[in-house]
Write a sequence for this structure.
C-alpha cells in the first residue's frame, strides 16, 4: 500500500524536530472528568498519543478539572480505563490541572502586581453589556483601574471565601477594544464554593479554562498542545498568558477539526442527558457512541484506531459517514473473530433416520483462513435446531434453504432432506421431520441430487442456551444533533431487540468478555459484560456481516 501523506500536525512536529526547536515531543490528552469519553475523544486520543509514539515522545493524561460541580471520580476512572483499553499508555503519573492550583494562583498574583489583572464587581449582565459585540468595541469596566493594593486585598478575600459566588471575578487587563472578543479582559478566576473531587474544600476560587490550560501545558513541558478548532480564537489569549507570565517553557497550541459522525451525537452534555433520562442503559449502553459503549458492543480497539487513522487529521470541519466506522469494525472482526454457530430463532428438526442415542463429533475450523485458531467440536444428534427462516413448506428456486421434499447441507455436517412439517393449533410450523442423507460428510450425495444451500444448526440436546441482543442505530436521523432539532425526537424506537431463547454451539460456553465471534450467517457478536450470568450468557450483536442499512 502507498504511504499515507503526512498530515499537517505530523509536518509541524517533524519540522520542529528537524530544526532543533523541539528535542522531545510532549503532548497531552486533557479531558474534563464531567462525563464518559466518546468517539470524538478517540480521535483526539489517537492523535495525541499517536504523535508521541510516532516521534519518540510522551503523551500526558491530564484531567482538566476546573469545574468542581460537574466533575467526579467515577468519570476519572472511566476515562483512564478507556484510554488504556484503546491501547495507550500515558507518560508519568496521571496529572490534574488541580495539582497546579497553587501555581496558577501565584501567577494570578503576579499579573495583579504587574497591573495586568483586576478584581471586577460587574454583575454578569453588566459585564456582557460592557463587553461590546463583534462590530462594537467594549467599554472599560469601572473597576479596571483599581490599585494593585486594592486588587491584592480583594483577590485575597475572594480566595478566603469572603465574597458570595458571582459577586466579583478576577479579569486579565488586556484590551476592551480588541477585535478578538477573547482578549476583552477575560475572566481568569471565579468564585465557586463547591467541593472539588480532588482538592476538597481547599479552594473557593477556580481558574478559567483559558487561564489554566496553557500554563498547565507550560508546567508540564508540553511542546504541542493540540485542540479542536473552536479554540483557534483562544490562541491569542493562550499566547498572551504565556508571554506575560514567568512560565518555565513555551508551549504552542495547534487546532484540528473535531470529529462529527452522522447518525451519532458527540456532545457529552447530550449523551449525559440520554443517560440521566433513562433513554439508554447507562454510559456504556452498547448503542452509545461512548468508548465504553463501543467496547461493550464489541468494537475492537484496533478497529477504532484504524478508523481514526483512516479519517485523517485536517483543519476543515466535516461529517464522517458512520459506515466508515462500521467498515473498520467489520474489517478487523472478519480477520480476527473465530467462527461459531448460534440459532437465534430456533425451529426443531428431528432426524427420523438418525439413532436417538447417537452423538457424532463434527469438526469445524475456528476460522476459514487462520490455522492459529483451534478447531471446534460440534455434537451432532437426533434432534437439532435450525433458524425458523431457514425452512419453508414451499418455495421458489431463489430460496436456497430447507424446503419440504428438498435437500440442504447442514454446515460442517450432513445433507438432510425434509419430509414433514408439524404445526401447532395456530398453523405455525413447530417441528420439521427430516432424514440425513448417508455418506454426505464432506461429499455430495451419491444419487447426484445436490443440496442448493448451506444452513447453520446446533444440537437440540447439546448446546448452550443464551440471550442475544440485536442493536440498530440509536438515531434514525442522519443529523440528530443539528439545526435546533430536539435530538430526543430522532431516537430510533427499534434500536434494541432482545431474543431470550437462542441456542449456541457449546464451544461458546468458554466465551469471555472481550472475545469476539462471528456467528456464521448472522453477524459478529461478543459476550455482554453486564447481563451475562454463568447460567445464561448474553451475546451482543456488534455488527451485521454486511452493510444492510437502507441508504
Ligand atoms: P464535549 O464537547 O463532548 O463535551 P469537550 O471538548 O468538552 O467535549 P473534553 O473532555 O474537554 O470534552 O475533551 C478532551 C479533548 O478531546 C479536548 O482536547 C477536545 O478538543 C477533544 N475532543 C472532544 N470532542 C472531540 C471531537 N468530537 N473530535 C475531536 N476531538 C474532540
Ligand atoms: Mg473541553
Ligand atoms: Mg464541550
Amino acid at each position: 500500500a502507498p504511504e499515507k501523506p503526512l498530515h499537517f500536525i505530523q509536518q509541524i512536529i517533524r519540522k520542529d524536530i528537524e530544526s532543533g526547536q523541539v528535542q522531545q515531543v510532549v503532548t497531552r490528552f486533557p479531558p474534563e472528568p464531567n462525563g464518559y469519553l466518546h468517539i470524538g475523544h478517540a480521535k483526539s486520543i489517537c492523535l495525541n498519543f499517536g504523535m508521541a509514539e510516532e516521534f519518540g515522545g510522551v503523551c500526558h493524561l491530564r484531567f482538566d478539572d476546573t469545574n468542581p460541580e460537574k466533575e467526579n471520580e467515577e468519570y476519572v476512572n472511566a476515562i483512564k480505563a478507556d484510554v488504556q483499553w484503546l491501547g495507550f499508555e500515558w507518560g508519568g503519573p496521571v496529572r490534574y490541572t488541580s495539582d497546579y492550583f497553587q501555581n496558577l494562583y501565584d501567577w494570578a498574583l503576579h499579573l495583579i502586581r504587574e497591573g495586568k489583572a483586576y478584581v471586577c464587581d460587574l454583575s454578569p449582565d453588566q459585564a456582557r453589556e460592557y463587553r461590546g459585540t463583534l462590530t462594537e468595541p467594549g467599554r472599560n469596566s469601572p473597576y479596571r483601574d483599581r490599585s494593585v493594593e486594592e486588587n491584592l486585598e480583594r483577590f485575597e478575600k475572594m480566595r478566603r471565601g469572603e465574597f458570595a459566588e458571582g459577586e466579583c471575578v478576577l479579569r486579565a487587563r488586556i484590551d476592551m477594544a480588541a477585535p478578538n472578543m477573547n482578549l476583552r479582559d477575560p475572566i481568569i478566576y471565579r468564585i465557586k464554593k463547591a467541593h472539588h473531587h480532588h482538592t476538597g474544600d481547599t479552594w473557593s476560587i477556580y481558574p478559567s479554562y483559558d487561564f489554566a490550560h496553557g500554563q498547565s501545558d507550560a508546567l508540564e513541558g508540553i511542546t504541542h498542545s493540540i485542540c479542536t478548532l473552536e479554540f483557534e480564537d483562544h490562541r491569542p489569549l493562550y499566547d498572551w498568558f504565556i508571554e506575560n507570565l514567568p512560565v518555565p517553557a513555551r508551549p504552542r497550541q495547534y487546532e484540528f477539526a473535531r470529529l462529527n459522525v452522522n447518525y451519532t451525537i458527540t456532545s457529552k452534555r447530550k449523551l449525559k442527558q440520554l443517560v440521566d433520562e433513562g433513554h439508554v442503559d447507562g454510559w456504556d449502553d452498547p448503542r452509545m457512541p461512548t468508548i465504553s459503549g463501543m467496547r461493550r458492543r464489541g468494537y475492537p480497539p484496533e478497529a477504532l484506531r484504524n478508523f481514526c487513522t483512516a479519517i485523517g487529521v485536517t483543519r476543515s470541519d466535516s461529517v464522517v459517514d458512520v459506515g466508515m466506522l462500521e467498515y473498520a469494525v467489520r474489517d478487523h472482526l472478519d480477520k480476527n473473530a473465530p467462527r461459531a454457530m448460534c440459532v437465534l430463532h430456533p425451529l426443531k428438526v428431528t432426524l427420523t433416520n438418525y439413532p436417538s442415542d447417537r452423538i457424532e463429533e463434527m469438526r469445524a475450523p475456528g476460522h476459514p483462513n487462520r490455522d492459529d485458531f483451534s478447531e471446534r467440536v460440534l455434537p451432532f444428534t437426533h434432534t437439532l435446531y435450525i433458524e425458523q427462516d431457514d425452512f419453508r413448506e414451499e418455495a421458489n428456486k431463489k430460496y436456497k434453504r430447507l424446503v419440504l421434499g428438498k435437500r440442504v447441507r447442514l454446515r460442517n455436517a450432513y445433507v438432510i432432506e425434509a419430509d414433514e412439517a408439524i404445526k401447532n393449533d395456530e398453523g405455525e410450523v413447530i417441528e420439521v421431520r427430516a432424514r440425513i442423507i448417508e455418506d454426505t460428510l464432506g461429499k455430495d450425495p451419491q444419487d447426484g441430487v445436490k443440496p442448493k444451500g448451506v444452513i447453520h444448526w446446533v444440537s437440540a440436546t447439546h448446546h448452550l442456551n443464551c440471550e442475544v441482543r440485536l442493536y440498530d442505530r440509536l438515531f434514525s436521523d442522519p443529523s440528530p444533533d443539528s439545526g435546533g432539532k430536539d435530538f430526543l425526537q430522532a431516537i430510533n424506537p427499534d434500536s434494541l431487540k432482545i431474543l431470550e431463547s437462542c441456542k449456541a454451539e457449546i464451544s461458546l460456553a468458554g466465551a469471555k468478555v472481550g472475545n469476539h465471534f462471528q456467528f456464521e450467517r448472522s453477524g459478529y457478536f461478543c459476550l455482554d459484560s453486564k447481563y451475562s450470568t454463568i447460567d445464561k450468557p448474553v451475546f451482543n450483536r456488534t455488527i451485521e456481516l454486511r452493510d444492510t442499512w437502507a441508504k
